Amino acid sequence: MNRFKEQRIAHGYKTQSDLAQILFVNQTAVSQWERGITTPSPPLLLKLSEMYGVTTDYLLGREISTSPHRKGVLIPVLGEVAAGIPIETLENILDYEEISKEMAAKGDHFGLRLRGDSMAPRMCEGDVVIVRKQADADTGDIAVVLVNGDSATVKNIRREPGGIWLIPNNPAAYQPHFYTCEECAETPVQIIGVVVELRAKF
Q1: Is 41 one of the annotated active-site residues of the chain?
Q2: What are the pLDDT digits (tens) for 166-191?
Q3: How far is CA 101 from CA 46, 108, 137, 163, in A?
Q4: N or C, which terminus of the chain has less Cβ within 10 Å?
Q5: How far apart are CA 201 and CA 66, in angstroms?
Q6: Around Cβ 195, how many Cβ atoms within 10 Å?
Q7: Which residues have C-beta within 8 Å of that of residue 42, sequence separation ≥ 6?
Q8: Is the pLDDT reported for residue 90 higher than 50?
């Protein structure tokens, strides 16, 4: 049974309309959650997990146990980040991840599902990185970078007085790229966040 339906019934909401009234949403929205067509928005998902006393991951089918809710904050996981596309764009959201309130308090975050193998073997295609939004990065950081407005790339950062290196973890297949300060401005090369956590998928 769909877990949204399972938990609704277990907690005494006999009909979808009963729950919809509590959440101030349409009965159609509840029906779509229970048929697996859509998932609730992050605030609604968090509210449901609190009402039912389970984790958001449990409701989304990523956990077996109905363990106590972790009191975390949901962030969107994106398949790509491109120039001009705000990361809040719903069409670009693939999934949601939960981060701690302590992490959330340090800034705005989003998840990014990796493509390609330039950061292998440490980071592989399909893994999710948790990214703190910021416009700069220091040597030693792993950053999400937009180059010439294309989809985001994840690379190690090394700063030099004359510019910046974007360095892959997989030098056998990919070469480091150096951009002068002038090229960073003209291309442009734009840092949009720093990776703070890796969530590998098995």
Answers
A1: no
A2: 999 998 888 999 999 999 999 999 99
A3: 13, 11, 23, 35
A4: C
A5: 21
A6: 20
A7: 74, 75, 76, 96
A8: no
The catalytically annotated residue of 31, 47, 155, 201 is 155
pLDDT given for residue 136 in this prediction: 96
3-71: CATH number: 1.10.260.40
**Does residue 106 carry a catalytic annotation?**
no
Please give the Cα distance from 178 to 29 (Å, whole number). Answer: 49
CATH fold of 75-199: Umud Fragment, subunit A (2.10.109)
Residue 70 CA to residue 12 CA, distance in Å, equals 23
Lowest model confidence (mean pLDDT) among 46-55, 77-86, 117-126, 148-157 = 77-86
Q: Which of 118, 133, 151, 201 is catalytic?
A: 118
Specify the pTM: 0.67
Domain ranges of the chain: 3-71, 75-199
DSSP codes joined into one string, 106-136: TS-EEEEE--SSTTTTTS-TT-EEEEEE-S-
Q: In whole angstroms, what is the distance from residue 13 CA to residue 146 CA? A: 47
Give me the chain's average pLDDT, please.
Answer: 87
- 19-39 tens-digit pLDDT: 999 899 999 999 999 999 999
